[in-house]
């Protein structure tokens, strides 16, 4: 009996020892903040993993979205942005996306170098799922109004956060910053732009004072006058302080006019934006405008106070911070040259 009891006791002790060893080898979970779940990753020697694999295997957090609570990487490395303004908003926060939707064939000048390896997916009612999958994202950001119908397919590729529709880009920037944990960066982006706007407004006022300015967009089939109530016009007139015409309708955001009506809005200075300066039809329309007596008799044309701007660099004006910053420098340089 004593021998049997001793053997039995030894077996029990061995099993307890092995069990304790097994428990000590298990990873321990530790919380890193409210709504955030941390997970340890087991190291595997001589095995290389992609950024996406490292991110998804590392820390994660739970965010509240248009589709409820979603678990995403705490520090995503490969982000896809499904909106033509998201590339700018992401880069303003220090994130270079791996793939984005784009309106123009090429990125604007201020994104070409940092986005040299970013995949351009074009724009369509339905995103290119194959290109998104090939980009191997660990997070997809998309506006709910545009992408809710595609949510199921997108979320099969990677965690997908649908963001709410907003009236102004600062709200969109803050939404994205909240997802990425970059709230302080968003505040700095807005503060820096506000300072840049102030400097630009002061410089422009020193150049032309209270002389009037009209902002005209030449499109393929129409001429549009942008007033102070439109995001683009508001940037020119309210943010940069350029004086609008007194007879521009106070309640209108913009006016679509014919060439014959343009003399009714005869400003001291004309900012002319070709909606797409690579479009041959728009170029032709503008050249036809230049040849008319109506155009030649405009006050701004006679005084050589005409500023030709536009293209893809002005496309997101009033809708994203990098475009706004670019336009400030562009317009100040244009006015300095002729005043």
From TrEMBL:
Q: Which UniProt keywords apply?
A: Signal, Transport
Domain Fe/B12 periplasmic-binding, by residue range, is: 78-339
Q: Which cell locations does it reside in?
A: Cell envelope
Signal peptide segment = 1-25
Superkingdom, according to UniProt?
Bacteria
Q: Which family does it belong to?
A: Belongs to the bacterial solute-binding protein 8 family.
The protein's name is: Iron complex transport system substrate-binding protein
């Amino acid at each position: 009996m004593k021998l049997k009891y001793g053997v039995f006791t030894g077996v029990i002790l061995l099993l307890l020892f092995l069990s304790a060893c097994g428990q000590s080898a298990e990873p321990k979970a530790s919380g890193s903040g409210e709504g955030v779940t941390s997970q340890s990753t087991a190291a595997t020697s001589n095995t290389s993993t992609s950024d996406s694999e490292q991110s998804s295997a590392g820390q994660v957090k739970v965010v509240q979205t248009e589709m409820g609570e979603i678990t995403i990487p705490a520090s995503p490395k490969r982000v896809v942005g499904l909106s033509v303004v998201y590339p700018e908003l992401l880069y303003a926060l220090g994130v270079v996306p791996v793939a984005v939707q784009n309106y123009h064939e090429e990125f604007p000048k201020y994104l070409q170098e940092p986005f040299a390896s970013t995949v351009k997916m074009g724009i369509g009612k339905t995103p290119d799922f194959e290109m998104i999958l090939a980009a191997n994202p660990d997070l997809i950001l998309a506006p709910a109004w545009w992408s809710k119908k595609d949510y199921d397919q997108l979320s099969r590729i990677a965690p997908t956060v649908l963001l709410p529709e907003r009236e102004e880009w600062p709200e969109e920037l803050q939404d994205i910053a909240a997802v990425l944990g970059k709230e302080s960066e968003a505040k700095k982006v807005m503060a820096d732009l506000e300072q840049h706007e102030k400097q630009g407004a002061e410089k422009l006022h020193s150049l032309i004072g209270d002389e009037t300015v009209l902002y005209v967009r030449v499109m393929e089939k129409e001429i549009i006058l942008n007033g102070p109530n439109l995001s683009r016009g508001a940037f020119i007139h309210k943010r940069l302080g350029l004086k609008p015409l007194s007879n521009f309708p106070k309640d209108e955001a913009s006016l679509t006019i014919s060439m014959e009506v343009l003399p009714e809005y005869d400003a001291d200075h004309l900012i002319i934006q070709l909606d797409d300066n690579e479009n041959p039809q728009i170029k032709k329309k503008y050249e036809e405008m230049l040849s008319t007596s109506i155009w030649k008799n405009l006050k701004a044309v006679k005084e050589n106070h005409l500023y030709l701007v536009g293209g893809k660099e002005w496309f997101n004006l009033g809708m994203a911070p990098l475009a706004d910053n670019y336009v400030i420098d562009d317009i100040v340089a244009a006015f300095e040259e002729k005043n």
